[in-house]
Amino acid sequence: MNVAEVLKRERIAENLSAKTKEEALSKLTDLLFESGALSDKDAFLKDVLDREAVSTTGIGNGIAIPHGKSANVKETTVAIGRLENEVEWESVDDKPVKLIVLLAVNEEDKTGVHVKLLSGMARKLAAEQTCKRLLDAKDADEIINIFSE
To answer: Which pTM does this prediction carry?
Structure first.
């Protein structure tokens, strides 16, 4: 399973307005809940924030890949938010984040599928050119196409 297989257009916010990491994660969680991927958005958000407290998910190049494994996830999926303004994230390169790729993983997928999704995403986002293309993408369809390559 790769990101393109679980990414849906309605789970991409092209111009996400948020001033903090927590606000951005809350809005992406709302997007997942509204599109039917979550049974309990508050419990899922708590799971994501608990994971964030362990270590940063800001991987550099303006990208963060937070993730939550939760019984409150109905279907393993991804929400993407491209922020209107950069947000501080305690990233590995000490730079703020402009694009957030939030993984929502259900209980059934919490081992193998979760690891495959995360490693595939990290591999794709390790390429600085891919990060730049995602940040510059004109719309959600272009973001989906980049993840489909």
So the answer is: 0.89
